[in-house]
Every structure is written in C-alpha cells, then in structure tokens.
Amino acid sequence: MSIKRALAAASAAGLALTAGGAYAADSLYNLPQGVTPVSHWVYDLHMRTFWFMVGIAVVVFGAMLISIIFHRKSRGAVAANFHENIWIEMAWTAAPFIILIALAVPAVSVLVKMEDYSKADMSIKVTGYQWMWNYDYVDNGISFYSKLAEDTNTARQLDSKVSPFSVPHYLRDVDHPLVVPTGEKIRLLITSGDVIHSWWVPDFGGKTDAIPGYVNQMWIKVEKPGTYRGQCAELCGRDHAFMPIVVVAKTPEDFRKWVKAEGGHLKAGPQSGAATMNRVRKPAPNAAQPKPPTKPPVEGSGTTL
Amino acid sequence: MNTHAAAVEHGEHHGPERGFMRWIRTTNHKDIGTLYLIFSGVMFVIGGMFAVVIRAELLEPGMQIVDPYFFNEMTTMHGLVMIFGVIMPAFVGLANWMVPIMVGAPDMALPRLNNFSFWLLPFAFLLLLSTFFMPGGAPASGWTMYAPLVEQTGMAFPFMVFAIHLAGISSVMGAINIIATILNMRTPSMRLMKMPLFIWSWLITAFLLIAVMPVLAGAVTMLLMDKYFGTSFFNAAGGGDPVLYQHVFWFFGHPEVYIMILPAFGIISEIVPTFARKPLFGYASMVYALASIAFLSFIVWAHHMFTVGMPLSAELFFMFATMLIAVPTGVKVFNWVATMWRGSMTFETPMLFAIAFIVLFSIGGFSGVMLAIVPADFQYQDTYFVVAHFHYVLVTGSLFAIIAAIYYWLPKWTGHMYNEFWGKVHFWTSLVTVNILYFPMHFLGLAGMPRRTADYALQFTDMNQLVSVGAFTFGASQLIFLGVIIACVRGGKKATAQVWDGAKGLEWTLESPAPYHSFEVAPEVE
C-alpha cells in the first residue's frame, strides 16, 4: 500500500474506523480478533468501548459544531447570559456514571475469566533475557532458547545493505519457535533473568510482563493450528526491537510427534505437573532468581536439556 | 468583574535594570515568566529535534541512521525534555506572568525564591543534556527509568538523577511560591470562589506538585542507592522488588500527568468565555471537577502497570478508579460546550486553538477510557495506541493550551497585536499536521506495533511513513509560531488594555504592555 492510500485510509477513517478496516481478520487498523478465547473477549470489549466512545463523540462534538456554526458573531448571534443550571449539571454528571457502569460490567466478567489459571493441561515456563526468550516445557523435559532469526539479524544491522523487504517475516522470525498444541489450556509461567520484558502475541489477546523475581501467569488456548507472531513489548535495552516471539500451534497429535522428535517425554497423566503448579500464587516477590544462562546459547544448539 | 485601575500610574519610578544582568538578577514576576517561557521554547526545539531523529529512523524498516541504543537515548531524552523542560516550565512561566496580575498582587510572594526556582532549571538541563557526551551515552531506559534496566545506564546515571533532583526542587519552590501568592497576596476583595479558573487550576496543581515531586526524588534516590551503595530496593536478587519501583514512580507519575493538564483546563476556561462573550458555564462545578480530578489522580497510578501481574482485586480497583476520572473530565468538556452554546463567538487564533484543544483532548480522553478497561489494556499496553493517547492529551492537549495562552496574552505582554493572518496559518497547519502525526499511531498500536522500538515489521511501513511526514511538517509549522512571536515582540498594531472585547478579569484593566510594576495598590473586585 502506498503512502497515498494509507493517507486516504486514515482520513476516511476520520473519527470512526472504516467498517472495512475495522473488521478484517488481520487488520492493519484494528486489534486482531485472534485465535484464543481471551483474544475474542478482548476484541469484543475493545469494539464495544470504541463504539460507546464514538457515540459520545458524536453527541458532544455535534453540539459543539452546531454552536460553532450558528452561535457566531458574524451571523449576528447575540450572547445569552445563562451560566448555570443545576439540573443539567447533575444530569451530565450522572450520565457518564451509567455509561461507565455499562462498560465496566462486561470488562469485569472477562477479567475474572482471564485470571482463572486453574485446570491447565500443561505449563510452559517462559524466561526473558536480553535479548532472547527461553522456553521450558516443565511437563515434557524440553527447554530451548528462541532468538531473532539469522537473516533478519543480518538485514537489521546499521549498514547491512540488505533490504528488510527481501527478508520473509522481517523482525518477526526466530530460530526456534515455541510449539504448542491446539485446543489445550496452556499456562505460561513468565519470568525474567535480567531486566523486565513482556511476552506478547497479539493473536493471543494480551501481554504479561516478565519480571525478575516474579513468576507471572497467563493462559492460552489456541483454537487453530498456525504460526502466530509477536515480540517483546517492554523496553529492555538496546535490542528491545529485536526479540520476536513466534508460536507454532500444532494439532495435539502433531505436537506429540514434535515432543518425541525433540527428545522430550510425554507426561504420565493429565495435569500431573499442572496440579501441583496450581498452588503457586502470584506474585512471588521472593522467588528464587531464575538462573541466567551459564553460557551464551549457541545458534542451533539448546533444543534439549 | 468591575475594577478601578488605580495601579497603572505607579511603577514608572523603578523600571527594569539595564543590560544583561537584568535577566540574571531579576526578581520581577514578569521577567521571570518571560525567562521560563523562553527556556521552554529552547527546550521545545531540542526535544523536537530528538523526535525528528526518532521519526527519521522510523521512516523505513531496518536501521538506517542511528544505533538502536542511541534510538533509545532519543526516546528517553525526548520524554524527559518535553515533560520537565517544556510543558512544566511553560505552565510555570504562564503562572509567573499571569497569577499576580490576575489576582491583583504586585508580584509573586517570594521574589528571590522565584529567581532561584528559574535559574536551577538551565543547570538541571545542562547536566541532563551533557550526558550525551559521557561514556555510555545518555540515559536510554525510557523517561520512566524502570529498574532494573535503568541501572545499566553508564556514567550518565548519577547526572540524570541529580538533574531530576534539581528540576524537582525548582518545581516545588515554584509551587510554594504560587500557593503563597494566590492565598496571601490576592486582592482582599477577591473571594476564593471569584478567582479566575486559571488561578484555581494552578492553586490545585501547585498542591499536586508539592505532594509528588518529593516522591519522584525518593524513587530516583533509591535507584542511586541501589546502583552505588549496595542497597536492594528494586533488586530481586537482593530481596528487593522491581515492581515496587513502578508503584513509587507512578504514584508520582499519575498526578504528574494532571500537573501537566490542569493548568491547561484553566487556560481553556479563560479563553472560551472571552470569545463566546458569555460567562463560563458552571463555574462552581468547574472548580469541584478540578479538585476531584486532583484527588482521583492519587488513587489511579497502577493503571500504568496493569500487565505486571497484580492481583485481580487490585486490577478491579484501579480500573474503577480510573474510569471515574471520566466523570469530572466530562463535566469540564460539557461546561465548555455549554459556554459556547448560544454565545456570540468569534474565532481568533486563541479561540481556534482552544476549540481544537477541546476536541482533540477529548479524543485523548476517549482512548483513555479504552485504556482503563483492563482486559483490553493487556492488548494496548506498551503499544503505539498508548503513544497516540498520551500525545493527544499532551500535545493537542497541554501544548495546544499553552499555544492558545500565548496568543491570548501576548498582546498584554508585548503591547502589540500579533499578526492574525499568520496566527491562523499556524493554527491550520498545526491542526492538520498534528493529526497526520498522531492519529495513525492509534492504528499502528492496535495492529500490533510496540512502542520504544527502533525498528518495525514490514506491515507497519505505510503508517509509519505517514506519521513521520506528519512529524516533520508539524515541527516545521512551529517555525511560523516562532516568527509570529518575534514579529509581535518587535512591533505591530498597538494593543488596547482590553485587547479582546469579551475579556473580563483584572489583567485586562492594566494597560498593554503590562507595566513593569503593577497593582501596587490592591484593586477592588466586585
């Protein structure tokens, strides 16, 4: 898309998003609807709040516009002298309350569901480092580092002479993606080994900060197989822009094949690991420091422990 | 308000000191106000150049101009300079100029302290800007200086902390001065509930400043202790807590946000009635709204950090408290619209900027309500949606109000009318370019572009180019503003005392330019 078209799109959008832009599945103008229950709930909340705001804007800006058009001196308007009206003032203090309650009620119900980490089918520990991620499948004995793919890394250097447009998935590709099964509730235990990072895949509906000394949680339940891309969302130093996240969702059968191929083991029974982990309360400020990598992870190694 | 302008004939017996030392040694509130405004303008150019570097690098995907670390230095220093060096000093400058002549006082209550408050600032920012030449470069961990990342700063670290201390001391002393002036120096016949809204807004802002600048000082001092004296306030390995830093910082940071917008509310509440030729609608509710916003600002800080993993109960509390702010803020917007309603409006440049303020600040308010919805915030947090939000409230909010105030009071300061044609050119170019600059950021954020990144994925290219074009043209259109101001200082049509035919208030009873010493005898207010 050219600048011209982007300009046209932005101006057409004006105060309201254009319908076409707003509802496309992988929109360039709006939140993704995503592939997890959470991402759908969040998308609906987002659109609901957005349309409420558009409604308020139409009323308030409309009144202003009428006033600007008609109540101007050049049209011979003579100023009235009213300067208070207790009933109007009470009404427009109360009205926002009602709108806010209408917005808050569904938000609370979504939030309560988002914060329910129980009955997870598996847990994966995610640790942020400057500037890569470590994924530790606590139930399967698989652990590896995931960092910026080599072709992007070459292209992004200051005087690389390689056009980013020649690199597939520039900046959104890693050497070892996180692989997860579809249809299972996966709990991510998120922490950091150095500074604060934030684990974010927009298609999963949100982000959670990776903080040294804390183990934060979020859960995902990916509905369909595919490759989902995101990146670190909390400023973490020089290469903050260069620590992407790639998640490959496979069907449970394919996932089990992948676990075997990686040399991991399948857990004995459902919830063996998760049941005990459920007792972990967050935040755990005095939790043991996650160990920093003992040596810099080498490209292509580190798939198994 | 009817006043008798007895003050004017005094003041000629003791004019300003001659020569350069006038500006160093002055204790005159008008001189110090001018100094603050000039300082703010210089810092605006510097902070703007940082923004130009940011937008130039983001013109295309890939790294073309600067190292990613230098890019982070740019975002960090852009934030620090614009907040502490531009918006805050500009409001303090306006307060210095206008508070005494709006409350009928001869000067600020503590003139020597006033001089000291100002002269701390240039040194604070010289220190801060000098860090570019230090080993390790300038601070690069964002203006929020989150631990533990900030402790990776090089030699710049203690200088940044000291600069913040100096700027904070300056702010607190300025705030004390403003409170003392308003409460003790006000002309006796002006009751509190008769004070102009700009005075009310600054009175409340000054209390916020005194309450929270020491909290910031405490936060950065704890960082200093952690880095150099072996403490572990924020160091998890030593039993400390990195999230504690964010709580302390935002306990300062959220009231700080309102420190930068409440005086803007006051300015708009002065300008709209003048050009609508109609009294402000709901004066009392405006004052109560200011006070409730100030109170709420102390209990919403954690909405800046919903993603750190707070308990559900805390997330709910901060969501509800944050949403509540929409109520008094809404009241203010409704009151402005009701003031315009059935007025007799003209649209000189200050009024144009004031109307743009109301509309664009409201857009920032709408995205603010969206951000308050915690589950949705998990998506918005740390994206360009947030960048769009706070630039709508800080640039088209605070900065537009400052520009409106300068156009509004410039004839009073200089004695000349500014050039209305060029003022309007400045307005329309600013209005168009500022929206090209910030509106697409909403889309970028929603589509998944994180903030504070030196590079971006290819699908964001078009929008980023649009934003960069908006940034360059918005920056360039401020040169018109500079031209208009310089021309107005040097000459132009003689301004009357009243300046605007709908203007009411003590400042308009003084001749233009306002005499060096004014209101040596307390004026009468009806």
- Portion of residues in beta strands of chain A equals 15-25%
By DSSP (H or I, 4+ residues per run), the number of helices of chain A equals: 7
Query: Beta fraction of the residues of chain B?
Result: under 5%
Q: What is the average of the pLDDT values of chain A? A: 84
β-strand number of chain B = 0
Topology of chain B as a string of helices (H) and strands (E): HHHHHHHHHHHHHHHH
End-to-end distance of chain A:
45 Å
Mean pLDDT of chain B: 95
Protein chain pair with the most extensive contact, residues per chain = A-B, 108 and 102 residues
What is the radius of gyration of chain A? 25 Å
- The best one-word shape of chain A is elongated
Would you write up a description of this structure?
The complex is a heterodimer of chains A (305) and B (526). Chain A is of the alpha+beta class and 305 residues long. Helix content of chain A is 33%, strand content 19%. In chain A, the strands form 3 sheets. Chain A has a 5-stranded mixed sheet with strand order 3-2-1-5-8. A 3-stranded mixed sheet of chain A has the order 4-10-9. Chain A has a two-stranded antiparallel ribbon with strand order 6-7. In chain A, a hairpin with a 4-residue loop joins strand 6 (197-201) and strand 7 (206-210). In chain A, helix 3 (37-70) packs antiparallel against helix 4 (86-114). Chain B has helices at residues 21-25, 29-57, 68-103, 111-130, 156-184, 197-228, 242-259, 262-276, 283-296, 312-324, 326-340, 349-372, 374-380, 384-414, 420-447, 461-490. Chain B is an all-alpha fold and 526 residues long. Classes of the chains: A alpha+beta (305), B mainly alpha (526). The interface between A and B is large, with 108 and 102 residues.
